[in-house]
Amino acid sequence: YQDGVMKKQVDGKDTVAHIFEYTTQLSVDATPQLVLPQADNPNNLVPVQIIFIVKAKNQKKINSHRWLFNAVGSMLNPEICVLIDAGTKPGHKSIYYLWEAFYNDRNLGGCCGEIHAMIQGGKKLLNPLVAA
Question: Where is the signal peptide (predicted)?
């Protein structure tokens, strides 16, 4: 995170989206075990490039899908795309399980995860905004 890096305008034009890129040097194999790169090891996994896009304005889910598949996907030709709604907190292995489904079945065209409320014993349901 870099405070102040996101701008509302650039050269007098409103910002449409913020794009962040990170390339991890660590990988997870199919067991799932953390794989650290070793010098001169032909079994090293390639680094994983992660691109995170935050739209400046909410224009609904279909708009996000168009952005990802028509614009970003056509330029980068990614092997796997994961879409996560704002405010959704994936479980600690959720993204791994999505990746694993694609890894184990090359003919798989799409998959989805399960969403459940994290209500922590229900005490937060006393707040009407949370309960709604």
Answer: none
